[in-house]
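DM between two lab members

TW: hey, do you still have the NCS2 family permease entry open?
JB: yeah, one sec
JB: this one, 468 aa:
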Amino acid sequence: MAYMSDSTGTQSWLGEYFGFEEHGTDLRTELIAGATTFLTMSYIIIVNPAILSEAIRIEGYSQQEVFQMIAIATILASAVAILVMAFYANRPFGLAPGMGLNAYFAFTVVILLGIPWQTALAAVFVEGVIFMALTYFGARRYVIELFPAPVKFAVGAGIGLFLLLLGLIEMNVIVQYEATLVQLNDVATDPVALVALAGLAFTFILYARDITGAIIIGIVTTAIAGWGLTLGGVVDRGVLAPAQLASPQYDITPLAGAFLDGFGQIEPATFVLVVFTFFFVDFFDTAGTLIGVSQFGGFLDEDGDLPEMEKPLMADAVGTTFGAMVGTSTVTTFIESSTGIEEGGRTGMTALTVGGLFLLSLVAVPLIAAIPQYASYLALVVVGIIMLQGVTDIDWENPAWLISGGLTITVMPLTASIANGLAAGIISYPVIKTTMGETGDVRPGQWVLAAAFVLYYYVSAGGVISGT
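TW: and the structure you got?
JB:
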Protein backbone atom coordinates (compact mmCIF):
# COMPACT_ATOMS: atom_id res chain seq x y z
CA MET A 1 0.00 0.00 0.00
CA ALA A 2 2.89 2.34 0.74
CA TYR A 3 4.23 1.71 -2.76
CA MET A 4 0.83 2.49 -4.28
CA SER A 5 0.68 5.72 -2.30
CA ASP A 6 4.14 6.80 -3.42
CA SER A 7 3.37 5.89 -7.02
CA THR A 8 0.10 7.81 -7.00
CA GLY A 9 1.81 10.78 -5.36
CA THR A 10 4.51 10.84 -8.01
CA GLN A 11 1.95 10.67 -10.80
CA SER A 12 -0.04 13.45 -9.15
CA TRP A 13 3.06 15.67 -8.86
CA LEU A 14 4.11 15.02 -12.45
CA GLY A 15 0.57 15.59 -13.67
CA GLU A 16 0.40 18.92 -11.88
CA TYR A 17 3.88 20.04 -12.96
CA PHE A 18 3.46 19.22 -16.65
CA GLY A 19 -0.27 19.95 -16.82
CA PHE A 20 -1.63 16.54 -17.82
CA GLU A 21 -5.25 17.52 -17.27
CA GLU A 22 -4.88 20.77 -19.16
CA HIS A 23 -3.40 18.97 -22.15
CA GLY A 24 -5.73 15.97 -22.01
CA THR A 25 -3.08 13.35 -21.31
CA ASP A 26 -1.78 11.09 -18.55
CA LEU A 27 1.50 9.58 -17.38
CA ARG A 28 1.12 6.28 -19.24
CA THR A 29 0.40 8.05 -22.52
CA GLU A 30 3.36 10.38 -22.06
CA LEU A 31 5.74 7.49 -21.31
CA ILE A 32 4.62 5.54 -24.38
CA ALA A 33 4.92 8.66 -26.53
CA GLY A 34 8.43 9.34 -25.23
CA ALA A 35 9.55 5.77 -25.89
CA THR A 36 8.14 5.99 -29.42
CA THR A 37 9.99 9.23 -30.17
CA PHE A 38 13.22 7.80 -28.80
CA LEU A 39 12.98 4.68 -30.98
CA THR A 40 12.44 6.73 -34.13
CA MET A 41 15.32 9.16 -33.50
CA SER A 42 17.81 6.93 -31.66
CA TYR A 43 19.64 6.16 -34.90
CA ILE A 44 21.45 9.47 -34.37
CA ILE A 45 23.45 7.87 -31.54
CA ILE A 46 25.03 5.63 -34.19
CA VAL A 47 25.03 7.88 -37.24
CA ASN A 48 26.35 11.10 -35.70
CA PRO A 49 29.62 9.58 -34.40
CA ALA A 50 29.98 7.61 -37.64
CA ILE A 51 29.95 10.90 -39.58
CA LEU A 52 31.96 13.09 -37.20
CA SER A 53 34.64 10.45 -36.59
CA GLU A 54 35.52 10.75 -40.28
CA ALA A 55 36.81 14.24 -39.52
CA ILE A 56 37.77 14.22 -35.85
CA ARG A 57 41.13 12.62 -35.18
CA ILE A 58 42.72 12.60 -31.73
CA GLU A 59 46.35 11.60 -31.38
CA GLY A 60 46.84 8.42 -29.40
CA TYR A 61 43.27 7.19 -29.92
CA SER A 62 41.88 4.87 -32.59
CA GLN A 63 38.90 5.87 -34.74
CA GLN A 64 36.69 3.46 -32.79
CA GLU A 65 37.71 5.08 -29.51
CA VAL A 66 36.97 8.53 -30.96
CA PHE A 67 33.66 7.12 -32.22
CA GLN A 68 32.74 6.18 -28.66
CA MET A 69 33.70 9.63 -27.35
CA ILE A 70 31.47 11.29 -29.96
CA ALA A 71 28.63 8.86 -29.20
CA ILE A 72 28.80 9.90 -25.55
CA ALA A 73 28.93 13.59 -26.52
CA THR A 74 25.91 13.01 -28.78
CA ILE A 75 23.95 11.44 -25.93
CA LEU A 76 24.89 14.13 -23.40
CA ALA A 77 24.12 17.03 -25.76
CA SER A 78 20.78 15.48 -26.67
CA ALA A 79 19.88 14.86 -23.03
CA VAL A 80 20.73 18.41 -21.93
CA ALA A 81 18.70 19.96 -24.76
CA ILE A 82 15.77 17.64 -24.10
CA LEU A 83 15.78 18.41 -20.37
CA VAL A 84 15.54 22.14 -21.19
CA MET A 85 12.69 21.30 -23.58
CA ALA A 86 10.94 19.28 -20.87
CA PHE A 87 11.27 21.56 -17.86
CA TYR A 88 11.53 25.02 -19.45
CA ALA A 89 9.41 24.74 -22.59
CA ASN A 90 7.11 21.87 -21.47
CA ARG A 91 6.84 20.59 -25.04
CA PRO A 92 6.97 16.93 -26.23
CA PHE A 93 9.84 17.45 -28.67
CA GLY A 94 13.06 15.47 -28.92
CA LEU A 95 16.39 17.06 -29.85
CA ALA A 96 19.77 15.75 -30.98
CA PRO A 97 22.67 16.70 -33.30
CA GLY A 98 21.02 17.39 -36.64
CA MET A 99 21.46 15.42 -39.82
CA GLY A 100 22.96 17.50 -42.60
CA LEU A 101 24.85 19.87 -40.35
CA ASN A 102 26.93 16.99 -39.00
CA ALA A 103 27.81 16.02 -42.58
CA TYR A 104 28.58 19.65 -43.42
CA PHE A 105 30.76 19.86 -40.31
CA ALA A 106 32.75 16.74 -41.21
CA PHE A 107 32.95 16.59 -44.99
CA THR A 108 32.85 20.25 -46.00
CA VAL A 109 34.21 22.33 -43.11
CA VAL A 110 36.91 19.97 -41.84
CA ILE A 111 37.80 17.66 -44.74
CA LEU A 112 37.16 19.90 -47.77
CA LEU A 113 38.02 23.34 -46.37
CA GLY A 114 40.77 21.96 -44.16
CA ILE A 115 39.55 23.77 -41.04
CA PRO A 116 40.72 22.08 -37.81
CA TRP A 117 37.88 20.19 -36.15
CA GLN A 118 38.51 22.14 -32.95
CA THR A 119 37.82 25.38 -34.86
CA ALA A 120 34.68 23.87 -36.36
CA LEU A 121 33.46 23.14 -32.83
CA ALA A 122 34.28 26.74 -31.90
CA ALA A 123 32.05 27.87 -34.78
CA VAL A 124 29.22 25.69 -33.48
CA PHE A 125 29.71 27.19 -30.02
CA VAL A 126 29.53 30.76 -31.37
CA GLU A 127 26.44 29.89 -33.41
CA GLY A 128 24.78 28.51 -30.28
CA VAL A 129 25.57 31.65 -28.27
CA ILE A 130 24.19 33.88 -31.05
CA PHE A 131 21.09 31.71 -31.22
CA MET A 132 20.60 32.01 -27.45
CA ALA A 133 20.97 35.80 -27.58
CA LEU A 134 18.52 36.23 -30.45
CA THR A 135 16.04 33.92 -28.76
CA TYR A 136 16.36 35.71 -25.42
CA PHE A 137 15.75 39.12 -26.99
CA GLY A 138 12.88 37.82 -29.17
CA ALA A 139 14.56 38.72 -32.47
CA ARG A 140 13.36 35.59 -34.29
CA ARG A 141 10.84 37.46 -36.46
CA TYR A 142 13.44 39.90 -37.79
CA VAL A 143 15.82 37.11 -38.73
CA ILE A 144 13.10 35.12 -40.48
CA GLU A 145 12.05 38.12 -42.56
CA LEU A 146 15.61 38.62 -43.80
CA PHE A 147 15.89 35.38 -45.79
CA PRO A 148 14.15 34.71 -49.13
CA ALA A 149 11.16 32.39 -48.73
CA PRO A 150 12.16 30.00 -51.56
CA VAL A 151 15.58 29.48 -49.96
CA LYS A 152 13.99 28.64 -46.60
CA PHE A 153 11.69 26.09 -48.21
CA ALA A 154 14.40 24.62 -50.47
CA VAL A 155 17.20 24.16 -47.95
CA GLY A 156 15.73 20.93 -46.53
CA ALA A 157 15.54 19.25 -49.92
CA GLY A 158 19.05 20.42 -50.78
CA ILE A 159 20.43 18.94 -47.59
CA GLY A 160 18.46 15.78 -48.36
CA LEU A 161 20.21 15.36 -51.70
CA PHE A 162 23.55 16.10 -50.02
CA LEU A 163 22.92 13.33 -47.47
CA LEU A 164 21.65 10.96 -50.13
CA LEU A 165 24.81 11.33 -52.19
CA LEU A 166 27.09 10.94 -49.17
CA GLY A 167 25.22 7.87 -47.99
CA LEU A 168 25.40 6.08 -51.33
CA ILE A 169 29.12 6.84 -51.61
CA GLU A 170 29.88 5.53 -48.12
CA MET A 171 27.83 2.39 -48.87
CA ASN A 172 30.02 1.75 -51.96
CA VAL A 173 26.99 2.05 -54.23
CA ILE A 174 28.34 5.13 -56.00
CA VAL A 175 32.02 5.58 -56.81
CA GLN A 176 34.18 8.28 -58.33
CA TYR A 177 34.53 8.24 -62.12
CA GLU A 178 36.62 10.72 -64.09
CA ALA A 179 34.37 11.13 -67.13
CA THR A 180 31.08 11.68 -65.26
CA LEU A 181 32.39 12.48 -61.74
CA VAL A 182 30.41 9.59 -60.24
CA GLN A 183 28.96 6.32 -61.47
CA LEU A 184 27.30 3.17 -60.18
CA ASN A 185 29.78 0.80 -58.58
CA ASP A 186 30.11 -2.88 -59.54
CA VAL A 187 27.76 -3.72 -56.70
CA ALA A 188 27.35 -7.36 -57.68
CA THR A 189 30.98 -8.02 -56.76
CA ASP A 190 31.20 -5.71 -53.74
CA PRO A 191 30.12 -7.35 -50.46
CA VAL A 192 29.73 -3.99 -48.70
CA ALA A 193 27.45 -2.61 -51.41
CA LEU A 194 25.38 -5.80 -51.52
CA VAL A 195 24.79 -5.97 -47.78
CA ALA A 196 24.19 -2.21 -47.56
CA LEU A 197 21.64 -2.28 -50.37
CA ALA A 198 19.85 -5.24 -48.80
CA GLY A 199 19.73 -3.37 -45.50
CA LEU A 200 18.51 -0.23 -47.25
CA ALA A 201 15.71 -2.13 -49.00
CA PHE A 202 14.70 -3.71 -45.69
CA THR A 203 14.64 -0.30 -44.00
CA PHE A 204 12.51 1.21 -46.77
CA ILE A 205 10.01 -1.64 -46.37
CA LEU A 206 9.81 -1.05 -42.62
CA TYR A 207 9.39 2.68 -43.17
CA ALA A 208 6.70 2.18 -45.81
CA ARG A 209 4.80 -0.07 -43.42
CA ASP A 210 5.04 2.65 -40.74
CA ILE A 211 7.08 0.49 -38.34
CA THR A 212 8.23 2.48 -35.30
CA GLY A 213 12.02 2.72 -35.23
CA ALA A 214 12.41 1.61 -38.87
CA ILE A 215 15.79 3.29 -39.31
CA ILE A 216 17.41 1.97 -36.13
CA ILE A 217 16.01 -1.52 -36.83
CA GLY A 218 17.45 -1.36 -40.34
CA ILE A 219 20.88 -0.26 -39.11
CA VAL A 220 21.10 -2.96 -36.43
CA THR A 221 19.81 -5.69 -38.76
CA THR A 222 22.33 -4.73 -41.45
CA ALA A 223 25.14 -4.75 -38.88
CA ILE A 224 24.08 -8.19 -37.62
CA ALA A 225 24.04 -9.50 -41.20
CA GLY A 226 27.56 -8.17 -41.78
CA TRP A 227 28.85 -9.72 -38.59
CA GLY A 228 27.06 -12.99 -39.36
CA LEU A 229 28.69 -13.28 -42.79
CA THR A 230 32.05 -12.45 -41.24
CA LEU A 231 31.85 -14.93 -38.37
CA GLY A 232 30.47 -17.53 -40.78
CA GLY A 233 33.62 -17.26 -42.87
CA VAL A 234 31.88 -15.94 -45.99
CA VAL A 235 34.09 -12.83 -46.02
CA ASP A 236 37.32 -11.92 -44.30
CA ARG A 237 37.35 -9.92 -41.07
CA GLY A 238 37.57 -6.21 -41.85
CA VAL A 239 35.33 -6.35 -44.95
CA LEU A 240 31.82 -6.38 -43.46
CA ALA A 241 32.81 -6.02 -39.80
CA PRO A 242 35.54 -4.03 -38.03
CA ALA A 243 38.95 -5.71 -38.15
CA GLN A 244 39.24 -5.30 -34.40
CA LEU A 245 37.16 -3.88 -31.59
CA ALA A 246 38.38 -1.14 -29.28
CA SER A 247 37.98 -1.39 -25.53
CA PRO A 248 35.18 0.68 -23.93
CA GLN A 249 36.06 4.39 -23.97
CA TYR A 250 34.06 6.52 -21.56
CA ASP A 251 36.71 9.19 -20.99
CA ILE A 252 35.80 12.10 -23.28
CA THR A 253 38.23 14.64 -21.86
CA PRO A 254 40.34 14.62 -25.09
CA LEU A 255 37.20 15.77 -26.92
CA ALA A 256 35.33 17.88 -24.38
CA GLY A 257 36.64 21.44 -24.23
CA ALA A 258 38.55 21.09 -27.51
CA PHE A 259 36.51 23.99 -28.91
CA LEU A 260 38.59 26.36 -26.77
CA ASP A 261 41.72 25.39 -28.71
CA GLY A 262 39.81 26.14 -31.90
CA PHE A 263 39.59 29.83 -31.10
CA GLY A 264 43.34 30.09 -31.53
CA GLN A 265 43.25 28.84 -35.15
CA ILE A 266 40.61 31.11 -36.69
CA GLU A 267 40.73 32.46 -40.24
CA PRO A 268 38.11 35.25 -39.93
CA ALA A 269 36.44 35.10 -43.38
CA THR A 270 36.03 31.34 -43.36
CA PHE A 271 35.01 31.23 -39.71
CA VAL A 272 32.24 33.81 -40.23
CA LEU A 273 30.92 31.85 -43.23
CA VAL A 274 30.86 28.59 -41.27
CA VAL A 275 29.12 30.22 -38.29
CA PHE A 276 26.56 31.79 -40.62
CA THR A 277 25.82 28.48 -42.34
CA PHE A 278 25.45 26.61 -39.07
CA PHE A 279 23.17 29.35 -37.77
CA PHE A 280 21.01 29.63 -40.89
CA VAL A 281 20.34 25.92 -41.27
CA ASP A 282 19.86 25.36 -37.54
CA PHE A 283 17.54 28.34 -37.16
CA PHE A 284 15.20 27.54 -40.02
CA ASP A 285 15.38 23.77 -39.64
CA THR A 286 14.35 24.12 -36.00
CA ALA A 287 11.67 26.73 -36.69
CA GLY A 288 10.23 24.68 -39.56
CA THR A 289 10.28 21.47 -37.54
CA LEU A 290 8.63 23.13 -34.55
CA ILE A 291 5.83 24.54 -36.70
CA GLY A 292 5.37 21.20 -38.48
CA VAL A 293 5.15 19.00 -35.40
CA SER A 294 3.15 21.64 -33.52
CA GLN A 295 0.57 21.72 -36.29
CA PHE A 296 0.35 17.94 -36.08
CA GLY A 297 -0.22 18.12 -32.31
CA GLY A 298 -2.67 21.01 -32.42
CA PHE A 299 -0.34 23.39 -30.55
CA LEU A 300 -0.63 26.34 -32.97
CA ASP A 301 -2.83 29.36 -32.28
CA GLU A 302 -5.38 30.85 -34.66
CA ASP A 303 -2.64 32.76 -36.49
CA GLY A 304 -0.64 29.61 -37.15
CA ASP A 305 2.06 30.49 -34.59
CA LEU A 306 3.42 28.38 -31.74
CA PRO A 307 2.79 30.23 -28.44
CA GLU A 308 5.99 30.98 -26.55
CA MET A 309 8.07 29.59 -29.41
CA GLU A 310 11.16 31.19 -27.89
CA LYS A 311 11.17 28.51 -25.17
CA PRO A 312 11.66 25.46 -27.42
CA LEU A 313 14.07 27.52 -29.52
CA MET A 314 16.09 28.16 -26.37
CA ALA A 315 16.31 24.40 -25.78
CA ASP A 316 17.84 24.06 -29.22
CA ALA A 317 20.31 26.90 -28.56
CA VAL A 318 21.38 25.54 -25.17
CA GLY A 319 21.83 22.06 -26.64
CA THR A 320 23.96 23.43 -29.48
CA THR A 321 26.18 25.43 -27.14
CA PHE A 322 26.63 22.56 -24.69
CA GLY A 323 27.14 20.11 -27.56
CA ALA A 324 30.05 22.15 -28.91
CA MET A 325 31.57 22.16 -25.45
CA VAL A 326 31.51 18.36 -25.17
CA GLY A 327 32.41 17.73 -28.81
CA THR A 328 29.51 17.41 -31.25
CA SER A 329 27.85 19.39 -34.02
CA THR A 330 24.70 21.53 -33.97
CA VAL A 331 21.69 20.26 -31.98
CA THR A 332 18.22 20.70 -33.43
CA THR A 333 14.63 19.59 -32.91
CA PHE A 334 13.86 16.30 -34.68
CA ILE A 335 10.87 15.86 -36.98
CA GLU A 336 10.63 12.33 -35.56
CA SER A 337 9.00 13.97 -32.53
CA SER A 338 5.77 13.75 -34.51
CA THR A 339 5.67 9.99 -33.90
CA GLY A 340 5.44 10.55 -30.16
CA ILE A 341 2.82 13.24 -30.63
CA GLU A 342 0.83 10.79 -32.73
CA GLU A 343 0.90 8.44 -29.72
CA GLY A 344 -0.66 11.17 -27.61
CA GLY A 345 2.39 12.98 -26.18
CA ARG A 346 1.45 16.53 -25.33
CA THR A 347 3.75 17.77 -22.54
CA GLY A 348 7.36 17.95 -21.41
CA MET A 349 6.94 14.54 -19.78
CA THR A 350 7.23 13.02 -23.24
CA ALA A 351 10.50 14.88 -23.75
CA LEU A 352 11.70 13.91 -20.29
CA THR A 353 11.15 10.25 -21.20
CA VAL A 354 13.15 10.69 -24.40
CA GLY A 355 15.99 12.32 -22.46
CA GLY A 356 16.01 9.56 -19.87
CA LEU A 357 16.24 6.88 -22.56
CA PHE A 358 19.12 8.75 -24.20
CA LEU A 359 21.01 8.67 -20.90
CA LEU A 360 20.25 4.95 -20.43
CA SER A 361 21.77 4.29 -23.86
CA LEU A 362 25.18 5.27 -22.46
CA VAL A 363 25.64 1.66 -21.34
CA ALA A 364 25.39 0.50 -24.96
CA VAL A 365 28.14 2.75 -26.35
CA PRO A 366 30.76 -0.06 -26.67
CA LEU A 367 28.24 -2.17 -28.63
CA ILE A 368 27.35 0.79 -30.83
CA ALA A 369 31.02 1.11 -31.81
CA ALA A 370 30.85 -2.42 -33.28
CA ILE A 371 28.36 -1.32 -35.95
CA PRO A 372 30.06 -1.08 -39.39
CA GLN A 373 30.13 2.31 -41.08
CA TYR A 374 28.14 1.22 -44.13
CA ALA A 375 25.27 0.14 -41.86
CA SER A 376 25.22 3.55 -40.20
CA TYR A 377 25.21 5.41 -43.49
CA LEU A 378 22.03 3.82 -44.79
CA ALA A 379 20.30 6.27 -42.43
CA LEU A 380 21.61 9.14 -44.58
CA VAL A 381 19.91 7.72 -47.64
CA VAL A 382 16.59 7.19 -45.87
CA VAL A 383 16.60 10.59 -44.14
CA GLY A 384 17.79 12.26 -47.34
CA ILE A 385 14.86 10.92 -49.31
CA ILE A 386 12.41 11.87 -46.55
CA MET A 387 13.74 15.45 -46.63
CA LEU A 388 12.87 15.76 -50.31
CA GLN A 389 9.25 16.29 -49.26
CA GLY A 390 10.12 19.96 -48.85
CA VAL A 391 10.00 20.57 -52.62
CA THR A 392 6.19 20.53 -52.46
CA ASP A 393 6.24 23.83 -50.54
CA ILE A 394 8.01 25.67 -53.38
CA ASP A 395 5.95 27.66 -55.88
CA TRP A 396 7.54 26.29 -59.04
CA GLU A 397 5.33 28.49 -61.25
CA ASN A 398 6.99 31.64 -59.91
CA PRO A 399 10.34 32.30 -61.70
CA ALA A 400 11.97 33.79 -58.59
CA TRP A 401 11.03 30.74 -56.53
CA LEU A 402 11.92 28.34 -59.34
CA ILE A 403 15.41 29.76 -59.91
CA SER A 404 16.30 30.59 -56.32
CA GLY A 405 14.89 27.37 -54.87
CA GLY A 406 16.22 25.22 -57.71
CA LEU A 407 19.75 26.57 -57.33
CA THR A 408 19.66 26.09 -53.56
CA ILE A 409 18.65 22.46 -53.94
CA THR A 410 21.03 21.46 -56.74
CA VAL A 411 24.19 23.38 -55.82
CA MET A 412 24.39 21.81 -52.33
CA PRO A 413 25.01 18.19 -53.41
CA LEU A 414 26.98 19.13 -56.54
CA THR A 415 29.51 21.16 -54.53
CA ALA A 416 29.25 19.12 -51.29
CA SER A 417 28.52 22.36 -49.46
CA ILE A 418 25.36 23.66 -47.80
CA ALA A 419 26.92 27.13 -47.81
CA ASN A 420 27.32 27.16 -51.59
CA GLY A 421 23.68 26.20 -52.06
CA LEU A 422 22.51 28.93 -49.71
CA ALA A 423 24.72 31.45 -51.50
CA ALA A 424 23.32 30.56 -54.93
CA GLY A 425 19.74 30.92 -53.75
CA ILE A 426 20.30 34.11 -51.76
CA ILE A 427 22.18 35.84 -54.60
CA SER A 428 19.70 34.91 -57.32
CA TYR A 429 16.50 35.87 -55.47
CA PRO A 430 16.79 39.70 -55.42
CA VAL A 431 18.24 39.73 -58.95
CA ILE A 432 15.36 37.72 -60.43
CA LYS A 433 12.78 39.65 -58.41
CA THR A 434 14.17 42.92 -59.75
CA THR A 435 14.17 41.55 -63.31
CA MET A 436 10.50 40.69 -62.86
CA GLY A 437 9.75 44.29 -61.83
CA GLU A 438 9.07 43.31 -58.21
CA THR A 439 11.84 45.27 -56.55
CA GLY A 440 9.49 46.32 -53.77
CA ASP A 441 9.31 42.72 -52.56
CA VAL A 442 13.05 42.66 -51.90
CA ARG A 443 14.20 43.82 -48.47
CA PRO A 444 17.41 45.90 -48.19
CA GLY A 445 18.90 43.22 -45.97
CA GLN A 446 18.46 40.67 -48.75
CA TRP A 447 20.63 42.81 -51.05
CA VAL A 448 23.25 43.02 -48.29
CA LEU A 449 23.23 39.23 -47.91
CA ALA A 450 23.49 38.76 -51.67
CA ALA A 451 26.46 41.13 -51.88
CA ALA A 452 28.16 39.33 -49.01
CA PHE A 453 27.81 35.99 -50.78
CA VAL A 454 29.09 37.42 -54.05
CA LEU A 455 32.20 38.41 -52.10
CA TYR A 456 32.34 34.90 -50.62
CA TYR A 457 32.23 33.33 -54.08
CA TYR A 458 34.96 35.69 -55.27
CA VAL A 459 37.20 34.81 -52.34
CA SER A 460 36.59 31.07 -52.52
CA ALA A 461 36.92 30.91 -56.31
CA GLY A 462 40.13 32.86 -56.05
CA GLY A 463 41.60 30.22 -53.77
CA VAL A 464 41.83 32.49 -50.74
CA ILE A 465 39.83 29.96 -48.72
CA SER A 466 41.90 26.80 -48.71
CA GLY A 467 40.55 23.53 -49.99
CA THR A 468 37.97 24.99 -52.41
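TW: got it. The chain has one domain: 26-150+178-389. The first helix runs from residue 2 to 18.
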